[in-house]
Structure formats: structure tokens, C-alpha cells
Design goal:
Blueprint: E1 5-12, H1 19-22, E2 30-37, E3 43-45, H2 52-66, E4 72-74, H3 83-86, E5 88-90, H4 92-113, E6 119-123, H5 133-148, E7 151-153, E8 158-164, E9 178-182, H6 185-194, E10 199-201, H7 206-220, E11 229-232, H8 238-250, E12 261-264, H9 267-277, H10 280-283
Parallel strand pairs: 4-5, 6-7, 6-10, 7-8, 8-9, 10-11, 11-12
Antiparallel strand pairs: 1-2, 2-3
Helix pairs in contact: 5-9
């Protein structure tokens, strides 16, 4: 995998062009993220971050297309005038119905995964196409997990897909042996964590970061594990590693609190690290492919 591209933060204090060319942001400064090719030294500047006013205009434009936010106010009391805007009221009946849906999702998942294991959860983006290098890397990871005898929560081997219902982007993985659909993100994340003895994180976006930090926080706080968290794609995760080091220098966590993480480009190395991290009792439960 290529390692020729390097991210560089750049602060540009030159005035932004006139309103006619930049939407009325005259006199502001801007932050840029540059991508530099380490072989040629050539930098490619990405679009500037917006200032406060530009951000507010973009936010309003976005929500005018999306529609009203699905926020509930309690029934009665102040705020009644806003209820038409906020679309709905919070009632005991709705809360009981919501609790029932949550309980049903957990019960269905617990029954499905009761006998699963040892299992590894694989996080990653649903946006990469089969021809993309990261898609191929994920398939190679799944193959190595299957060879080692792991059940995989979304991936290869004896695999289970825990699918979140979204208006776009994620559909059922055609390669999994069984798929469950979840309405709530948090019930899905509980199940992705509950049945896993390790986590592999493929390149991905906000959802992948959410899942990564959820697992990392639980391990750091000793609520689960300790389990290894393997990040696949050294070049992809380079910026986050540097950010994590700067946070560590700032004192928000210690080095030993995130020592469970490892970054590699090798699917075999990732799975070998997981196997070697397991207690002998768990390793004996694996059924490797001969």
C-alpha cells in the first residue's frame, strides 16, 4: 500500500478574496489541510475551513433540505408554542413503546449470538466499492480471520452482519451468514462489543470513528477486555495517530491507557496479534481452517 502522501496543516493569514469570489468572507483568515507527495514534494491544498457566518449559512441550507429535526418536547409546560416546529411531543405512551422496541432488539440479538464465539468485530466504511484497495484489504482481513477460526461480526468466516437501518448508504452485506437489522445505533454497538474478544478497524468515516472510540473508551475504563484494537491501513490512520500523540502530551490520557491499539497494513499480522493476545482457554475454542 502506498505511503507517499502526507497530511500537513497550514495556517494562511492572507485575506480571503473579495465577496464576489468567496461568498462574503472578506478579511477572514483560513485554515487549510494540505496533502503533500513525499516523493515529489508537491502540495495539494484542500478547501479552506469556513468562518462562523459561512458555517451558519451552510447549516441552515442543509436543514432546509433535510426537514424538521426529530426532537421531542415533554407534554405540557413551557415550550408548547414550539411544538409544531419540533413536530411531536414526548408522552409516556411513546416512551413505553420505545422501551419495548429497545428490549425487543436486545432480546432478538441475544438469542442470535448466544452461542457465537470466539468472535472478532470488524468496523469500517460501507462506501468503498469492490474495486477499492480498502475493500480488498477488508476481504483479506476476513479471510485471515476465517482461517484462524474466528466468528466475525460483519466480515468473512462464520460471519454475522449487524446492520443499522439508515435512509442511505448501508445495506445488508451479501457475504454474511446471518444478518440482523437494528433501529437504534446504541443497541447495535452493544452487541458488536458484547460478543467480541478483539476489534479490527478498517478505514472509515464518522460511524467507524464512533465505533472505534466506543470500544477504546470501554477498554480504557476497564469495562471490557483488555482486548486488542487493530487499525488497518497505516497511511489512513497516520493523522489520527499524530492527533492522539498530541492529546497524550496535553495530559488527557496516559500512554499505557491506549497501549491496546496497534496499526498495521498486514491482515495476517493483525490476526496473529489477536490470536497471541488471547488467553489459552479462549485459543483452545478456535477451530482453524487446515
Amino acid at each position: 500500500m502506498s505511503r507517499n502522501w502526507i497530511g500537513i496543516w497550514q495556517r494562511d493569514n492572507a485575506p480571503i478574496p473579495s465577496p464576489s469570489t468567496n461568498g462574503g468572507l472578506e478579511g477572514a483568515t483560513r485554515n487549510h489541510f494540505c496533502i503533500m507527495n513525499s516523493k515529489t514534494g508537491k502540495q495539494t491544498k484542500l478547501p479552506a475551513f469556513p468562518d462562523r457566518d459561512a458555517w451558519a449559512r451552510a447549516w441552515q441550507k442543509h436543514w432546509s433540505k433535510v426537514g424538521q429535526p426529530g426532537y421531542e418536547l415533554p407534554a405540557g409546560g413551557p415550550g408548547g408554542d414550539e411544538r409544531e416546529f419540533l413536530a411531536t411531543a414526548r408522552t409516556p405512551q411513546k416512551e413505553r413503546a420505545r422501551l419495548k422496541r429497545i428490549s425487543t432488539e436486545f432480546e432478538r440479538a441475544f438469542k442470535t449470538f448466544y452461542k457465537v464465539g470466539p468472535a472478532v468485530t470488524v468496523f469500517g466504511s460501507a462506501r468503498f466499492k469492490p474495486s477499492h484497495p480498502y475493500y480488498k484489504l477488508a476481504r483479506a482481513v476476513g479471510a485471515e480471520l476465517a482461517k484462524a477460526g474466528f466468528a466475525t461480526l460483519t466480515g468473512g468466516g462464520k460471519s454475522y452482519g449487524l446492520n443499522i437501518i439508515l435512509p442511505h448508504e448501508q445495506g445488508e452485506n451479501p457475504y454474511v451468514d446471518r444478518s440482523l437489522e437494528f433501529h437504534y445505533f446504541f443497541t447495535r454497538k452493544v452487541c458488536l462489543v458484547k460478543y467480541s474478544c478483539a476489534f479490527i478497524v478498517m478505514p472509515g468515516g464518522l460511524g467507524t470513528l464512533d465505533e472505534l472510540f466506543e470500544a477504546a473508551t470501554l477498554i480504557q475504563c476497564k469495562k471490557i477486555g483488555p482486548f486488542p484494537v487493530i487499525l488497518m491501513g497505516a497511511n489512513f490512520w497516520k493523522g489520527m495517530r499524530e492527533w492522539g500523540q498530541s492529546m497524550m502530551k496535553a495530559g488527557v490520557f496516559a500512554k499505557d491507557e491506549i497501549g491496546f491499539g496497534y496499526v498495521t497494513d498486514s491482515p495476517k499480522e493483525a490476526v496473529d496479534l489477536i490470536v497471541n493476545s488471547l488467553p489459552s482457554e479462549v485459543r483452545r475454542c478456535l477451530n482453524p481452517v487446515k
